[in-house]
Amino acid sequence: MRRACWFLGLTALVAMFAVGRAHAAEPGAPAAKPKADKPISEDVLKKVEAALPDRPCAPPARPRKMLILTVTKGFRHASIPLAAATLEMMGKKTGAWEATSTDDVSMLKAATLSRFDALCSDQCTGDVTRDAPDADEIKKSIVDFISGGKGLVGVHAATDVGGWNFPEFKEMMGGVFAGHPFRRISVKLDDPASPINAAFEGKGFEISDEIYTFKEPYSREKLRILISIDWENAGLKGGTRADNDYALSWIREYGKGRVFYCAFGHEDAIWYNPTILKHYLAGIQYALGDLKADATPSAKARIQPARGPVLPPQPEKAKPAAKPAPKVNQAPRVLHAPMAAAAAATVSAAPPPEPSGLKPDAQGWITLFDGKNLDAFQKPPADKWKIIDGVLTWEKGCGNLWTRDKLGDFVLDLEVKCEKGTNSGVFLRSAEGERNWLHGSIEIQVAGTQGDRKPGKHDLGSVYDVLAPAVAAEKPIGQWNRMVITFKGNSLQITLNDKPIINADLNQWTEAGMNPDGSKNKFKTAYKDMAKVGFLGLQDHGAPVWYRNIKVKPLSSAAAPTKGGSGSR
Question: Cα–Cα distances in Å, from 447 out to 44, 164, 355, 477?
Fold first, then answer.
C-alpha cells in the first residue's frame, strides 16, 4: 500500500507541473510548449523527491511566490523542464515559496510580475522578447521589479543573456556566458561562512557538469562570489580567462533587490544532488529576502577560501621523442587517395599513410556507417551510441564518437535528423581526437533550427562560432537533412539539402579568437593553422540526434586547394 501511495503521489506531481505550466500562460497568448521538452520520468522524479530538503533555510516572512520563466529562442537545454519541476517541488515541500512556471513573456509585464517576489530565469536563451510587441515595456518592468526590491534567480544558461538585448539585465545577472570548456572540476568555497554555502559544511568538493565561464560585466568588484573553480587544484588547462577566475555561484545587490546565480544545472543529476539542491534553496531564499547574507563584493571582503580537493592534472600533449616504430595495428591510419610518390611526399603534416581496413568502392567512397555496425569508429568510453532500424542514434552520456582513421582532404556525405533543441556537431580534422576536440578540431554545427530567417553561427551547417550559412537550407524539424562537406587544404565548402551554404577560405582566419568580419570566436588557434589531417567525430552534447548513410571520399592531397569565398555570404 505504501508503494502504491508513493507512485500516486509522484504521478500527481507530474500532473501538477503540467497543469501549472498551462495555467501560467493564461494572462497572454501562450507560446506552444517546445517540442524538445520530453516528459520527466517517474524514476527521475523519485530521485528528486528523495533529494529535496525537508525544511527552509529560514522561515519565510510571509507567503512567497516565484515566477519561473522557461522560454527560449536560442539553444534549449534538455534540463529546463526538470529544473522548473524541481524548483516547484522544492518550494512546495519546504514551504519556502509557491512557484509558477511559464513560457509566456507577457507575464513579465509589471501588472502581472508585481504579484511575485522573485523572477527565475530557467536557462532562457536567445532573443526571448523577439516576438513581443511590447518588448521595451517588458525590459523596463524587469529592471523596475529587481531594483525596486524583488529578487532575481539565474539557473545555468541564464547568463547566456545576449538575447535580452539590454545591458541592465546583463549587469543584474552579473556576467555573460563565455564558454563551457570544463567538465569535472575542483570547487573551492570563496565564502565558507555564508549561509548560502551552509550545505557544503565548510569544505570544497569535486563535481561534474557543463561548467560555464563568464566575461564582462563579471567582476569580483561587483559580486559576492560564493564558490568557484579551485584552479590550482583542478588540474585544468585552457579556459576563457587570463586570470583563471571561474566563479560558479554568486549573489549581488541591485538597487533594493537581490540576485542569486548558480552555474550548475546542465546535467539531470544536478537536480537530484542533495547538496546542490540545498545551495539552490538557500540562494533562492536570499533572493526572496528571507535568508540574510552579506553581499559585500568579494574584492572588498578579503575572505580566506576553503580549498577544493586536488585532482590529477590533464595529460600533457605527447612530445616528440625517439622511440621504436609503433606496431601497424596500434597507429591511427590515414585514409588517402591513390597518388604518385612525389605527390604523397607533400603531405608533411600527416604521419606516413598505412593500409586501411576500409575499402573504397569503384567511385572512391568508403562507407563509415551503413546502418549495420560501427566498425569504422573507435569505441567511446561510454559505448552508448545505438543502431536502431539502420539509424545511428544518441543515448545520454554516450560520449563523442571518433573514426579509427585520420583524413586529410576529403568529401564527407551524411544525413542527419534533428529535433527542436538538438545540439550536436561533426568534427573535422581533429589531430588528437578526444584529447583536444574543443580547440583542436573544426566543428560543423548540427542543431535543431528552422524557419525563414537569417541563419547564425550556431545553426545547422554553420562552422561553429566562426561562419554562418549563406542561407537557411534546413528541412522542418524531424526530417532528414543531407549534408556534403568538401575539405581541400584550407578550402571548406558545405552544401545542405543541395543548397550551397558555406564557401570559406580558412587562410583568412589569421588570428586566434577572431573572425575576418571582426566578430569573436572561442578558439585558441587561428583557423588557418588548424591541423590538416585528423579524425572525424560525431559530438555528444547532451541532446538527441540521428545519423545515417555516412560515407567519405578521400581526395588526393596533390590537388590544388579550391579557392573559397572571403568568408562572407
Answer: 26, 21, 35, 10
